[in-house]
Specification:
Chain lengths: ~425, ~290
């Protein structure tokens, strides 16, 4: 005789098997007719939302968000809705590394994307590498980022070392009678600025331009005016300023105006590319004639860029000239990541790293992207932009689509 | 030589502005034994007030001082009443650090909410014009800053040593209990002193904002410099703050000529040496109170 307990167990098991079978049938049946929604994925970055690089960090966040919005509208990444998570690093490399540890070990993000500036990217890439994550980034183009030869870092933007080359080539192209004879090279002590300024100094002096000033300085508010006064006293015809952000450029600009010094060429490594934030800081028309190297500007004829600019203006308002170039750098990171994920049909970091090392050419709002073995974008083209009246225009290299260089630069405030 | 003299001129003019910002900090410490960590962000708040007046309301920031100085004074009195007056007992000084830091964080958060973190600035006409004397370039904005510093420090000095209220302040500086026993309303003295200490940031903030771009984060850099100035000058000494500020900025400007990356390090090295020889600073608290 079967016990009451055994009978109860038998009925229970039968019911469970039946329920499982029905569930399986239901699942397979629905799979053929309706699309099963995939779980969202989280992509994380550490960004400088406060501190020295906050203007750039906020622009990067806009760029990342714009890309995620567009990509989600196009179906996400392999059908996964993209959720972005950002941790504020306060422009500190130490906090940035800590943030990537948190993103990977606590938040368990699927993918990581880069912070702002080479200063923060180099240590962040090391953390990402430790856990096998790819770090596609848009603002870590300094030689120090690539010197460690990490296999997981990919900079979609222009490598900074030779970014001033178009300006140098332009100086070389000037007739001897017009070519400036003297230059000053003040640079902040930052891995982004020093290689650029040293490169420019080496090349320009080789052209016969005499260096009247070369000093490395910390970007401290109390020191900017003193340095700028020394530069102004030299009366050099070219000033190549190694700056990481707007406050340094505006400090030099103000001191130059106070000293009645207007160089024929004033080019800063960063700051003038930050659109409306830069214009507001230096004041009315004091930006006219100031140049900056970069790989993108709001008036780019690249169709991808035009689309992004239209979306940016629709979302955040403003003008094409007022868009911070950091927005395009961040957006490009997303575009490159999308193409790698789609090509590998996978969100696996190892596959993404392997794919990006294959030498394929990808597209971005900044132009083509192709990485070498250390993650530099070999396909990027260096441009030099100049503020002319209220417009931010591409002036170098000269040729199709570029506007003639305003030389010598206009007087301050005109 | 010309470069050296220009650096000295820049240092004296720039140093006076820092003295203006540090004067309030050291005055508050002298009277209340409170280290007001919020002084840096209060300078930035004052700079934002001048920014709003200049850029949005088109009021010259110098004229705007007629609005910002009373506003900052009122804010200072309110902070003293709401936060500092509550601090009692032997841990008062240590607690003041925490409380004033909390005040700084609250103000910083409010500024982030109101203005975001993008650096801003304003350039009145006199911020980009200079006076040339014997080949020296003296920007008007720094001359104005120097004048404001001289006026504010002289006013504080006259108030302390030529008025009945000043006697009350000095009595409170020397002994709060004894001052209370002779009928001085110590709470009122403390509130007004805190108000004055914060009010002078209006002038310092106006000049700072006209010579630098700034965001809410700028307060941290400022407070570290202001603290080092009042420590070098001697906590509680207005004259010490002036001497230390002039020394700090002039030393930086001179070292800048040769090696800018060493400028800050040289200043802090001198600070350590001075404190080893005179732990009370150049014009330490006791000496200052005996002036």
């Amino acid at each position: 005789m079967i016990s009451h307990r055994a009978r109860f167990l038998s009925v229970g098991i039968t019911a469970a098997v039946l329920a499982a079978a029905l569930a399986a049938c239901s699942s397979s049946g629905s799979g053929g007719t309706t699309h099963k929604k995939k779980a969202p994925i989280v992509i994380g970055a550490s960004l400088s939302l406060t501190g020295q690089f906050s203007t750039d960090g906020l622009a990067f966040r806009k760029g990342y968000r714009l890309w995620a919005h567009d990509q989600n509208a196009a179906g996400g990444l392999l059908g996964h809705h993209i959720n972005l998570t950002f941790l504020n690093d306060n422009s500190s490399p130490t906090t940035a590394t800590s943030n990537y540890q948190t993103l990977i070990n606590v938040d368990h993000v699927a993918l990581t994307i880069g912070p702002f500036s080479s200063l923060l990217t180099a240590p962040s890439a090391t953390v990402a590498h430790r856990y096998g994550y790819a770090l596609v980034e848009g603002a870590g183009g300094a030689p120090s980022v690539f010197a460690t030869k990490l296999p997981n870092v990919f900079d979609v933007s222009l490598p900074v070392a030779a970014s001033l080359l178009p300006m140098i080539n332009w100086v070389a192209s000037l007739p001897a009678s017009q070519r400036p004879k003297t230059a000053a090279f003040p640079t902040s002590n930052d891995p982004f600025t020093q290689p650029q300024v040293q490169f420019a100094k080496q090349k320009l002096t080789a052209l016969g331009v005499k260096s009247l000033y070369y000093k490395v300085f910390p970007e401290e508010p109390t020191q900017i005016k003193g340095i700028a006064d020394q530069v102004a006293a030299k009366k050099a015809q070219i000033v190549v300023l190694g700056s990481t952000a707007v406050p340094t450029v505006s400090g030099f600009t103000q001191a130059f105006i106070q000293a009645h010094y207007n160089p024929q060429v004033f080019i800063a490594t960063a700051g003038p590319d930050q659109g409306a934030a830069y214009q507001q800081a230096v004041g009315h028309y004091n930006y006219d004639g100031v140049m900056v190297p970069n790989a993108w500007y709001g008036g780019s004829s690249n169709p991808l860029s035009k689309k992004m600019v239209a979306e940016y203006i629709a979302t955040y308002h403003g003008t094409a000239s007022g868009i911070n170039a950091d927005v395009a750098e961040a957006y490009s990171v997303g575009e490159v990541l999308t193409q790698a994920v789609n090509a590998t049909h996978s969100l696996a970091n190892s596959k993404i790293i392997s794919y990006l090392h294959k030498g394929v050419t990808l597209n971005s709002v900044q132009g083509p992207v192709r990485f070498n073995s250390v993650g530099e974008n070999l396909a990027a083209t260096a441009f030099v932009f100049q503020w002319q009246k209220n417009n931010f225009v591409q002036v170098l290299p000269t040729g199709t689509g570029s506007t003639p260089v305003e030389f010598p630069k206009a007087p301050w405030g005109k | 030589m010309a470069q050296f003299l220009q650096a000295v001129a820049d240092g004296i003019l720039g140093g006076a502005v820092y003295a203006l910002m540090a004067a309030g900090l050291t005055l508050i410490f002298g009277v209340m034994d409170i280290i007001n960590i919020a002084q840096g962000i209060l300078v930035i708040l004052a700079a934002y007030l001048s920014y709003v007046l200049s850029v949005h309301l088109h009021i010259d920031p110098l004229l705007g001082l007629f609005i910002t100085v009373p506003a900052m004074f009122a804010l200072g009195v309110a902070i003293e009443w709401a936060f500092m007056r509550r601090l009692r007992g032997r841990e008062r000084v240590a607690m003041s650090l925490l409380v004033s830091y909390a005040v700084a964080v609250i103000i910083e958060g409010a500024l982030y909410q109101a203005f975001g973190s993008t650096p801003v600035g304003y350039l009145p006409r006199y911020a980009v014009k200079s006076l040339y004397i014997h080949g020296f370039n003296l920007p008007y904005i720094y001359l104005i800053g120097f004048g404001l510093a001289a006026a504010a420090l002289a006013a504080i000095y006259l108030m302390l040593y030529r008025t009945k209220f000043g006697r009350s302040i000095r009595a409170t500086m020397q002994d709060r209990v004894a001052a209370r026993l002779v009928g001085i309303n110590v709470d009122r003295v403390a509130a007004l002193t805190f108000g004055i200490g914060v009010a002078v940031t209006a002038a310092g903030g106006m000049v700072f904002g006209a010579t630098n771009t700034f965001n809410p984060d700028s307060g941290y850099d400022l407070i570290s410099r202001l603290l080092s100035i009042v420590i070098l000058g001697g906590l509680g000494s207005i004259a010490g703050a002036l001497v230390a500020a002039l020394f700090m900025v002039t030393a930086e400007e001179i070292v800048n000529i040769w090696q800018p990356t060493w400028a800050t390090a040289v200043y802090y090295a001198v600070l350590v040496i001075v404190l080893l020889i005179r732990p009370t600073g150049l014009l330490g608290k006791r000496e200052a109170r005996a002036q």
